[in-house]
Amino acid sequence: MQSLTAALSPDVYTNTSASQPHLSIAGLTKQFGDFTALKQIDLTIQEGELVCFLGPSGCGKTTLLRAIAGLAPQSSGSIVQRGREVSALPPQARDFGIVFQSYALFPNLTVYDNVAYGLRNQRQDRQQIRTRVAELLSLMELTGSEGKYPAALSGGQQQRVALARALATEPGLLLLDEPLSALDARVRVHLRSQMKALQRRLGVTTVMVTHDQEEALTMADRIVVMNHGVIEQVGTPAEIYQYPASEFVATFVGSMNLMDVTSKSAGSWQLGRQQLICPKSFSEAPSGHARLAVRPEAVTLSKSQEGLQADVANVEFLGAFLRVHLHLEGCDQPILADISSRDAQAISLDVNQRVSMCFPVEAMRLYPAGGSAA
Amino acid sequence: MNAVLSLLPQTLRSRESLIRLIVLLLAVALMVFGLLMPLLTMLIKSLQNRAGDFIGLANFAEYFQTPALANSIFQSLFVAFFSTAIVVSLAFLCAYGITRTCMPGKRAFRLLAILPILAPSLLPAISLVYLFGNQGWFRDVLMGQSIYGPIGIVMGMSFWIFPHALMILTTALSNSDARLYEAAEALGTPKWRTFLTITLPGVRYGLISCAFVVFTLAITDFGVPKIIGGQYSVLATDVYRQVVGQQNFQMGSVVSVILLLPAVISFIVDRVIQRRQVAQLSARAVPWQPAPQPLRDGVFTLICYSVAGIILLVIGTAIYASLVQFWPYNLSITLDHYGFDGLAGGGWPAWFNSLKLAFSVAVIGTLVVFFNAWLIEKTEGYAPLRQGLHFLAMLPMAVPGMVLGLAYIFFFNQAGNPFNWLYGTLAILVLNTLVHFYTVCHLTSVTALKQLDPEFEAVGASLKVPFWTTFWRVTLPVSLPAVLDISVYLFVNAMTTVSAVVFLYNSDTRLASVAVLHLDEAGYFASAAAMAVLIFFTSLVVKLLHALLTHVVLTRAQRWRLTS
Fold first, then answer.
1. What's the domain range around B299?
2. ipTM exceeding 0.90?
3. Shortest CA gap A120–chain B (Å)
4. HSE of B37, CA atoms in CB hemisphere, 13 A
5. Residues A191 and A318 in one domain
């Protein structure tokens, strides 16, 4: 099911761009001794897009990035970049620039020498190098810092020097390994939009590894959600958020209510003791046990007698909205509902009060019981 | 199309990794031919008779049946235990003074305490003869006992080994966590209990490691017992006597194998302890700062400066002895003894040879050791080769100099050995000295490299820069302080070592340290002292130059280094 999603989504993309993919990964597996870090990864990345590898630590996203770079060669599988088979090539022979989490700026070289590091090796003449470095530094808003050493720069400036150094040789592919995680929250939010704008302007195909879902949702053209060495889902940020392909994706991206539901006959599902009004697609699921997912902001509350009857257990005030903890009779897990302050005024929400809870049909998702098998 | 495109990168790839492979193989070959093969040859020799026939353990049986030989085992253990006890306790007190008290003049004391390392171990032995010998100033202190024997050996070794122990214990004691002491104080714990429950457990690995290092140095040292041992023979002098005195190479190799055992055992114990020590101190520990306490500070000042006084007295005695016309009858000052004309040992040319050796080892050795450590630590691929090289780099620490020197004779002097031409050249001395002192340099390099960002090489590769450019432009400059440390360590050791090279020089490659030995044997005590003092001052000057250079490098680097 996961590989199906991964294989299908690029087709959607080619319809709009109609060019050959920048990078095609097929059947990629990476073993560290007995441990399998990546299992049969298939992925296609289009020219000019920004793809985020998103997942918890240890999911294999950095390993995949390092395999693309040739820094940690895969155990099996192939990588094709712009029609060129690069699977067996060392990093030197591949076409990419990389920014590491630590930036790995050379501490004994000035900003200028850091950025010019790769250019000097291409035997360009001094004037050319000078022009290119100046161009990059002005692009990164670092003009005037040429003579400084990395230790004298702020975290955000260091990050931009690392970016300039990676872009200096005009690589076809830019790899970013958690490029923002070493910065403090405020700078991070600012740099996010800056980096995205820069990437769009230069049109450089970019792969970014992150564990921060907000970063992925705001920056990526497409997100590759990974867990335990496999791709759980590939899709645009909206697709990932609205139509999570697995229970893991549903819980990892955004917050999600997950409830055990049971079915005695096809298409009829029960939550606790109450009957659910389900989307048509649910009738295809085999009867038995399953997990129902609804985002807290999709849950609506009213005073009517219809819908699921639940008791208010607790109300948290979170500024723009209220988070209501609800207790449903015959159901162990509390259900969360995010209600705007205005809506909350219409129904006075007091603890122990009974309210009517409604899940919009289009917001309900059903997953096999026992979590995603993968 | 694909094939054509991948042609160029393929050659690029094979070129870089081929070079890495070749260098790794060369490094492994260096250790195999410079360490493993000689040791193996020596082991085989110990199982052969003079004619070269295999006779099993017969040589060992003969050894243990000859009381004059087997006795040396107990005598060696005896002096080694005593030296260890004295050195570890004195070094602990002094290290405690440096790290845990507010005694004045800590820097000056540390400088003075390091001095014995700059002299060959022959120097304290010569000084002790002048101080406590038959015509010595303090002869009466020994109450009729002779300095020529265990007393002299223990005293001389303690002097020479003290700086090694002090360095280890100072490092161990400076790792403290103030939060533990504050907690103890808040609970009203008496000082002696704090010491027993916090301070001692905190340095227990350092103490054990220190004891084993000191024990190994003491049991393998050759210089001190050679000069001052008299009739009291130990294993190291037995090797020399069997080989040089009696030309009994088989028995020499038997003694070497026996001498190898305690060194190997303490090496293994030390490795095991080092591995355990890693996670001892958490990164959040707050270093403990001593507060002034007049009584405690006074006591430790007294202890430390007494030790420093003894060090200065011993070195001063050697200098004085080298300047006096004819001690104790004519005490006028002269530089005659620095002429070395017509005396044994080789005189000034030997000193020049030593300089040549020390410079060669310092330059070649530093590059070889540091580059190999870099290959092991910072490159991908060839994992078995890299792990093997790391293991080989750790081994020399377990091989005493006498054993290594004798093993070189056996291996390189064999008829039919393709490296036979090395025998009797300066090159074999360089190789031997480099291998002999390899481990400490390797560990220093690895520690320095581990502190660097692990992605420097990856960045270089992504920018299509060959690995040697990144090594030369980034890794080496950033590690310069450690590199300088290694080179001066190699220089000083090459200058002062006697044990291994005593078997390997010939008439063209005599060395200053060996000259001290020969001058002493021939009865030219003042000239022996003069040569030892010459070595000492050579090392001192190089050490001072090193300090100056390091200072310049660090000031320059201040521009980019975060910490001073």
1. 57-334
2. no
3. 9
4. 17
5. no
Mutate to test the interface with A, among B6, B463, B471, B562 (most CBs of A within 10 A): B463
The verdict on residue A12 lying in a domain is yes
Q: Are residues B391 and B419 in the same domain?
A: yes
Q: Are residues A78 and A171 in the same domain?
A: yes
User: First and final CA of chain B: distance in angstroms?
Assistant: 55
Please choose, from the candidates B125, B74, B402, B50, the residue with its C-alpha nearest in 3D space to the C-alpha of residue B260.
B402
Tokens for A113, please give them.
């020498």
The neighbouring-strand residues paired with A271 are A261, A274
**B 13-42 near A (Cβ less than 8 A):** 13, 16-17
Interface of A with B in 85-104 (CB under 8 A): 85, 89-94, 96-98, 100, 102, 104
Distance from the Cα of A160 to chain B's closest Cα (Å) equals 15
Q: Out of B300, B334, B368, pick the residue that ends a domain.
A: B334
Question: Are residue B66 and residue B98 in the same domain, yes or no?
Answer: yes
Tally of domains in chain A: 2
Return the H-helix or E-strand segment holding A230. Answer: strand A230-235
Mark whether A203 and A278 lie in a shared domain: no
- Residue range of the domain that includes A204: 4-245
Say whether A165 and B459 touch across the interface (CB within 8 A): yes
Walk along chain B (564 residues) and give the pLDDT tens digit of each residue: 344 434 444 444 567 888 889 999 999 999 999 999 999 999 999 999 888 888 989 999 999 999 888 999 999 999 999 999 999 999 999 999 999 999 999 999 999 999 999 999 999 999 999 999 888 888 888 888 889 999 999 999 999 999 999 998 998 888 778 888 889 989 999 989 999 998 888 888 889 889 998 999 999 999 999 999 989 999 999 999 999 989 999 999 999 999 999 888 888 888 888 777 655 555 566 778 888 999 999 999 999 999 999 999 999 999 999 999 888 888 899 999 998 888 877 889 999 999 999 999 999 999 999 999 999 998 877 889 999 999 999 999 889 999 999 999 999 988 888 888 888 899 999 999 999 999 999 999 998 898 888 899 999 999 989 899 999 999 999 899 899 999 999 999 999 999 889 999 988 899 999 999 999 999 899 999 999 999 999 999 999 999 999 888 888 776 776 543
Last residue of a domain, one of B334, B367, B397: B334
Residue B24 structure tokens: 């790794």
**Any domain includes B165:** yes
DSSP secondary structure string for all residues of B73-116: HHHHHHHHHHHHHHHHHHHHHHHHHHHHS--S-HHHHHHHHHGG
Q: Do B463 and A168 touch (CB under 8 A)?
A: yes
Residue A374 counted as domain residue: no
Whether residues B259 and B139 share a domain: the answer is yes
Determine the distance in angstroms separating the CA of A243 from the nearest CA of chain B, rounded to an integer: 37
Is B469–A121 a contact, with Cβ atoms under 8 angstroms apart? yes
Cβ contact A358:A308 at 8 Å = yes
